[in-house]
Design a protein that fits this description.
Blueprint (H helix, E strand, L loop, with lengths): L2 H17 L31 E9 L2 E11 L2 E15 L5 E2 L5 E15 L8 E7 L9 E10 L2 E8 L5 E11 L2 E7 L23 E8 L4 E8 L3 E11 L32 H15 L2 E9 L2 E8 L5 H15 L5 E8 L2 E2 L1 E6 L1 H7 L13 E4 L28 E5 L2 E7 L8 E12 L9 E13 L4 E13 L14 E12 L7 E10 L4 E11 L5 E12 L12 E4 L4 E4 L4 E13 L4 E9 L5 E11 L2 E10 L10 E9 H5 L10 E10 L15 H5 L4 H17 L18 H4 L6
Parallel strand pairs: 15-16
Antiparallel strand pairs: 1-2, 1-13, 2-3, 3-4, 3-5, 5-6, 6-7, 7-8, 8-9, 9-10, 10-11, 11-12, 12-13, 14-15, 14-21, 16-17, 16-18, 18-19, 20-21, 22-23, 23-24, 24-25, 25-26, 26-27, 27-28, 28-31, 29-30, 31-32, 32-33, 33-34, 34-35, 35-36
Helix pairs in contact: 2-3, 3-4, 3-7
Length: about 750
């Protein structure tokens, strides 16, 4: 390294940094591989929580396809696919540099943790991380980096091991909101990139300095052009996204800020209230502004209870907030308000609010003594609303008597109670619809590039009472290029994709805990037919749970519309065999989970027998942004490839349609795209598999756990109250120091 040249560059950057007074705000951009950084190296900056970028970089001989996300407020996760222009794989799996076969591809995951985020120009933000932490580890390196920021300038200095090869650094200058200039000193050691005997970049770079510019569009698109290594022009294109708002068709605000509501009127006194008229006003408001059904209303002395079932919102918190907004617009001053959301007629949660909350909503002002904090969210007791299923008698709740099926007044303990029930009972109980379905696929063995298929699906969705439901999906293929050799060849046929009968039951006998059972039977997905049973015991707030899962299933016939295979279908290295094994398979797991409420982070551990009779465990970490889910899972069983310490690993995605289409839909939607994407495997295709399922307890109850629902309702209420006054700013980036007291030092926690 030319030390004098590096010192001059560093001094120049520091001089510009300290004298800068530019007004342009900080706009960190992506490095070549996707992590927030300079060009080839990361910085100690990262996106805001729940935001990230999808992008592509061409830096010959490397091509990077990546998805980068601030998965935790202090943790940036970057998943990428790297390809090499000059290394090829022939049909027999042999490497070559002759151009015969297909380009070599490598999957990787990069992590960066922010240890400390500085708010002072003289103290740096600190981060450390690792690149290519799993799989081939072809580009693995460890690093630590510090970033000083003053206004529009950011100066970074760090040290890396292995491929990163020592001291690195650079400066980024946000000239304008749409323009960033970056310069970097890069000692990258490309000689460590080796595929067999072939190296994509065998020679030392002509220069260790990289310079270039990033152009940024108002809608989040970024294009970058740089000159790197003294030998190559590098181009990259990326699109920012925010899991708090739509990816496409944005209307300039968060999806839920514009929650509509009837215009607030002068609040009447309770003595002037006609219960029947109030019930009609609530009914009309819910019909106009909320997509719910099976609504039951109970009005007592300064008390109102509303039970409902959400059918048209992917977010249960959003449905509850909309109900609250309607009640705030039409109700008089109340002492208390109770809401009970249900699933298939089964009451799930009882939420008791103080009457002051409605007053705050009318004023669009949640006070510092937020009444939501005094609200109580608990599991609904068995039979708390409607009939208990035993003797046909209603079971009383707390403060207000339970529902009946007829409107009118009755006497309960000397108190007049007005009941209005089931005025939306028929709404959305049975739905038949057609959907255009797009399914992207990446072969986890990387035998092929990116693949996809389009289809038109005919869907039936039925929700009945007493916990019963049904779902059926017939798939009509339109366009398909998915040809994955170790999966059933069913993609070009009209098939019954799924047809299941489900039942949900709450066996909880008190409000301190939830004891839930979920079962489903039928055609579980395109590969499996069978039965799944879950039992879950939740804590009083849903923070932790323990449970069991048992499954009995068998393979479906890939060539039939809905037929079953005669035996077990074994997929392996280019072959398939109807093995002489029992057609039916059995699997079962012991399960436990815990939720970190501040982060909406769910940790789960499963141990048991998998679909191919292998035994082991599965760990998963799932982050929730209300109705959006991004998680990671890893499976290890007694079937491993030599030299590997895991069986399979991948990503869990649950993305609502509104996240993609936003206000373009014209109305709220409950459709969620759910996908488990295997990213890494140890070449044991017949290991670590779980069989199929439709909706597990996490999908059915995850958002409705009392603690989770209360938190998300609070966030949406704050968003609703602040919408008209000002557009809420992005959440502040938080560091690991906010969660580990020992790292905080003398800094006050915000």
């Amino acid at each position: 390294m030319n030390l004098r040249r590096w010192i001059r560059l560093l001094c120049l950057g520091m001089g510009i940094f300290f004298v800068s007074a530019a007004d342009a705000g900080p706009q960190p951009s992506a490095a070549n591989s996707g992590l927030t950084g300079l060009w080839e190296y990361p910085t100690a900056e990262m996106p805001n929580d729940g935001t990230g970028r999808l992008g592509y970089t061409h830096a010959s001989p490397y091509d990077y396809y990546y998805v980068d996300l601030a998965w935790l407020p202090w943790l940036e996760v970057n998943t990428r696919l790297s390809t090499f222009d000059n290394i090829w794989v022939d049909p027999f799996g042999r490497f070559n540099d002759t151009g015969y076969g297909r380009r070599y591809m490598d999957k990787a995951m990069d992590l960066k943790a922010m240890l400390y985020r500085s708010s002072r120009w003289y103290l740096p933000s600190l981060a450390f991380g690792v690149t290519d932490m799993m799989g081939t580890e072809l580009m693995k390196a460890w690093y630590g980096v510090a970033t000083w920021r003053l206004g529009s300038f950011a100066l970074s200095l760090g040290y890396g091991t292995d491929r990163m090869n020592g001291l690195f650094g650079g400066v980024a200058w946000n000239v304008q909101d749409w323009l960033t200039l970056k310069a970097e000193y890069s000692p990258m050691d490309y000689s460590r990139d080796a595929v067999g005997q072939y190296k994509p970049h065998p020679n030392h770079p002509s220069s260790k300095y990289n310079v270039g510019a990033v152009l940024r569009a108002p809608w989040g698109t970024e294009a970058a052009l740089s000159y790197q290594r003294g030998e190559e022009f590098v181009f990259s294109l990326s699109q920012r996204f925010d899991l708090h708002s739509p990816f496409l068709f944005r209307d300039g605000s968060s999806r839920r800020k514009a929650i509509g509501a009837p215009g607030s009127t002068r609040t009447p006194q309770w003595k002037d209230i006609d219960p029947a008229r109030l019930a009609r006003q609530i009914q009309e408001g819910l019909e106009q502004y909320v997509r719910v059904r099976d609504v039951e209303i109970e009005i007592g002395d300064r008390k109102v209870l509303v039970a409902y079932e959400n059918y048209g919102h992917s977010s249960h918190a959003e449905a509850m907030v909309r109900v609250l907004v309607v009640l705030a617009a039409v109700s008089p001053h109340l002492d208390s308000l109770t809401l009970i959301p249900r699933l298939a007629g089964v009451p799930v949660v009882r939420a008791d609010f103080p009457g002051e909350l409605l007053f705050d909503l009318r004023a669009r002002n949640l006070r510092s003594e937020d009444p939501l904090q005094s609200s109580i969210f608990v599991w609904a007791r068995d039979g708390e609303t409607g009939k208990d299923g035993k003797d046909g008698k209603t079971v009383s709740g707390e403060g207000i008597e339970s529902f009946v099926k007829k409107d009118g007044e009755t006497q309960a303990g000397g108190q007049a109670v007005y009941r209005s029930g089931c005025f939306l009972e028929a709404r959305a109980r049975h739905r038949v619809k057609t959907m255009l379905v797009y399914e992207p696929r990446i072969d986890q063995t990387l035998d092929d590039d990116y693949q996809h298929r389009w289809s038109v699906d005919l869907i039936y969705d039925g929700n009945y009472s007493n916990g019963w439901g049904a779902f059926a999906d017939v798939r009509f293929p339109v366009v398909n290029d998915v040809e994955i050799w170790w999966e059933p060849d069913i993609n070009d046929k009209i098939r019954l994709q799924r047809a299941v009968l489900t039942h949900l039951n709450n066996w909880g006998r008190n409000k301190k805990a939830g004891l839930w059972f979920l079962s489903e039977a039928g055609w579980l997905d395109e590969n499996w037919f069978g039965l799944n049973l879950w039992g879950r015991r939740y804590s009083w707030d849903g923070r932790w749970w323990v449970g069991l899962q048992g499954s009995v299933f068998r393979d479906r016939d890939p060539s039939a519309f809905a037929g079953l295979a005669q035996g077990q279908i074994v997929y392996g290295y280019g072959w398939r065999d109807d093995a002489e094994l029992s057609a039916w398979r059995m699997a079962g797991w012991i399960q436990a989970g815990y939720t970190f409420s501040d982060l909406d982070l769910d940790l789960q551990m499963d141990y048991g027998r998998f679909a191919d009779s292998d035994v082991g465990f599965k760990v998963s970490a799932v982050r929730r942004w209300d109705d959006t889910v991004v998680g990671f899972w890893l499976t290890r069983t007694d079937r491993l490839s030599p030299g590997k310490d895991f069986t399979r690993a991948g990503i869990r995605l649950e993305l609502p349609a509104e996240k993609w289409l936003g206000s373009w839909l014209g109305h709220s939607s409950d459709h969620v795209w759910v996908q488990d994407v295997p990213l890494l495997s140890t070449w044991r295709i017949d290991a670590g598999r779980e069989g199929g399922h439709w909706q597990n307890p996490e999908r059915r109850l995850g958002q409705l756990r009392p603690m989770t629902l209360k938190k998300n309702v609070g966030l949406l209420l704050e968003e609703y109250c602040s919408f008209e006054a000002s557009d809420a700013s992005e959440p502040e980036i938080r560091s690991l120091a906010d969660y580990v007291p020992a790292l905080r030092g003398g800094q006050d926690k915000k």
